[in-house]
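Hi R.,

Here's the chain you asked about this morning:
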Amino acid sequence: FTMNVYLFVYDLMQFCGHSWIFTNMIIRFMTFGKDSLADTFHSIGLVMRLCQLLSVLEILHILIGIDKSRLLPRFLQITERIIVLFVVINSQEEVQGKYVVCVLFFLWNLLDVVRYTYNMLARMGIYYLPLTWLNFSLCIPLYPLSVLAKGFAICVSLPYFESFGTYSIKLPFPFTFSIYFPYVLKMYLLVLFAGMCFIIRNLFSERMAHLGTGNIKNKRS
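And here is the predicted structure, written out as tokens:
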């Protein structure tokens, strides 16, 4: 019971954070139009970073057994966001004003508002079939789109990492070893798209497990 209350509070906090971001983005766009897209990161970036840092707890939840989700898919999804948000976007001010950041934040928060709403109700044993369907169906088209947006954000950032030398390291003598960070990002692109295939397969299996004919009948009853 205590763990259920803790998880409910965690989901509620995440729901409030992502709902605020999502609502803020929509209101700003309706008010200022395309002009609002360029300063999306400066307007909501702090709350977005806090929410993503808080999501690291989900890995701990799985490790200690209070969350029955699979570890590897969730780990990959969380680390993808952490790397793109903190390493790529947060470190390059020139990237923060790109439209792709707004697109990426919109996709992330749309998915998370639905997911944390479903999780909160599930903690109380409440299952609405439309919400269950939305939670396990919406991610299948939107997750690949978010991966494409992440890849595009990385590609956009490469010229800035090359010109500013951010995170590139050249060790002094006697070490003849250096790390050129744009190469690291290019290799990470391969990992990102390889991981996408694995996660999409996991999303389909989760959808089948929760929306199979037998499960739907049980939840209706």
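One quick note: The chain has a mean pLDDT of 89.

Cheers,
M.
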